[in-house]
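Following up on my earlier thread - several people asked me to post the actual chain instead of describing it. Fair enough. Here it is, all 582 residues.
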Amino acid sequence: MLSNLLYIFRIAPGAVRKSLFWELLHGIFVASPTGMLLLIIWELFEPEPDQRKIWWIAGIMGGMLLLQFYIASKTLLASNQMTFQLSNTLRLKLGNHLQRLSMGYFKKRDPGDLASVVLQDVANFETIFGHTVGNIAGAVFATLTLSVFLFAVDWRLALLLIAALPLGYLFVKIANWVITKQGAKLVLARNATGARFLEYVQGIRFIKSYGMTGAHFKSLERAMRDFKKASIRTEALPGPFVLLAAIIFELFFLGMVGLGVGYFETGTLSIPVLIAFLIMGYRLYEPLKVVLVDYVTLRYMNISLTRIIDLLKAEEQEWEEDCPPEHFDIAFDHVNFSYTGDENVLKGISFYIPEKSMVALVGPSGSGKTTIANLIARFWDAQQGSVMIGGIDIQLLAPHTVYQMISEVFQEVYLFDDTVYNNILIGNPKASKEQVWQAAKAAQCQEFIRSLPQGMETRVGEGGSRLSGGQKQRVSIARAMLKDAPIVLLDEATASLDPENEVYIQRAIQQLVKDKTVVVIAHKLQTIKNANQIIVLDQGRIKETGDHTYLMEVGGLYTQLWNQQQKAQSWKIKTMMPANEI
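Reply from S.P.:
Thanks for posting it. Predicted structure:
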């Protein structure tokens, strides 16, 4: 746990030092009245106690109590500030770190598990640490301060009291092993519950239509039941060992009492010292008992910290270049790629796309078209061969450099739950209002924007739920226009649109791709008929390459696809089946 905390503390060292300073000062002031009480006891056992001295000591104790209230408030404030600063910085670091990881990393990790680290594990750390850091620091500093007092009075009895700590720690270690084992199961159960609940909410329409709501949705019910069992085990199983550690402290205190009485009877220990140990010795363990009560939650916090640190330490690549190339032609050189590490999705792909030209990728579903676009955008990295932009292998470029060079317009558009204006502004956060409006106008957005209640300031809902598919697509194109990147990737941008929206989108795309290197993925071959180059893919290999005229003359796979689409466009439903025959 200590190593994890030290790693996290490096995130905000200034806040940590400030908090520890006040915790140390608070611990001293908590323990000091007991030492002052020792002075009063000694004075009372003098042949002629000095009452003025006793009152002076009592007055000092009262003053220290008032000062302790002030220090306690400063300690609490510093502790909370440190906790919130750590959790806030952790979330930002995790978010920035995730952006730098390749898509292959996300393929290996459950998305629900990653979300659990960023949201639940950080929140778990924040809640537990915020409520226990004062107890931990107080236990350490108060115990150390009291130990110094006790050793100064009588090292023999103090040593006996301190000897309880290693034995108590043995039981704490056993509890630690149990918590680590059960805590890992609890995290898995928690993630499974979150994933099943998300699945339940996202698929509620289908669940209702098939009557799987409530107890009928067994997977969610089973996940919640497993989470309940794991939670109970994590809380209950370590408890007896933590209790045994507390019992050890009680037994050693009783042993100290017996030994002290023995020393008193032999005349090697004065009664003031014995009384001091009876009072202060018992208080020595009080802070530790508080920590033992919180120990289960502390270890559970440590599991969350381990998961956070493992994600922060996930391997990042080193890049030799950090500036964009001078030209924006694209080349694939014998590229092989697999999502799973088994069968290759792309098999020895090689082609060249000149700068400021339009290339179309066509072929049956699963032939590798979208995979090629993903490699150009560096959402994934090729396992063999190289993908080059401007003659530079993009694996040598920092991801943010690659992202700056590319704009993407996909069939599935995601808009954030923000205004239309801010969703377009994502393309270039430094753009002026006039530039944003010009991009929206060029993307054919002005008509539907004027019909919205607040125009550009209208919120679009989560995922753009308040806009139609065509409207979302036009906002996406406006965003790409505002970015004005030299390379544009279009993946089925008009595949699922109605004819009216398709006209708007085609106009917007014509504005977007001017003087750009354009890679288009399309099933509607009519839309890419005028492309400079058409690459025909099948089962991860290039079958044909050329323009439309050449490929039609060859009479290969492209010709088959073209003829099939032309034939499909001529289909008509001539008659309707009578309702009584359905």
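The CA atoms of residues 143 and 284 lie 6 Å apart. That should answer part of your original question.
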